[in-house]
Design goal:
The protein is an all-alpha fold. 57% of the residues lie in helices and 0% in strands. The chain has two helices and no strands. The radius of gyration is 27 Å and the shape is elongated. The N and C termini lie far apart (81 Å). The relative contact order is 0.06.
């Protein structure tokens, strides 16, 4: 017997439960946590790029000019 396609109960995902603070417009710490995480990621990427640039520059300085 074929499945019934008329029953769409549960389709569309679930809604997030809002806390009282979120309902009153105070927002959530979740947004702040995302911002902090993004800032940390950007700082890490910046440091990695600086190290990579320093590593590329170091062999050029160490290489003898007469070779």
């Amino acid at each position: 017997m074929a499945k019934s396609r008329n029953n769409l109960l549960g389709v569309g995902g679930q809604r997030k439960k809002l806390s009282r603070a979120e309902q009153q417009g105070a927002g959530s710490a979740r947004n702040d946590d995302r911002k902090v995480a993004e800032d940390k990621k950007q700082e890490l990427v910046r440091k990695m790029r600086e190290r990579a640039a320093a590593a590329e520059a170091a062999p050029e300085q160490d290489a003898p000019a007469g070779s």
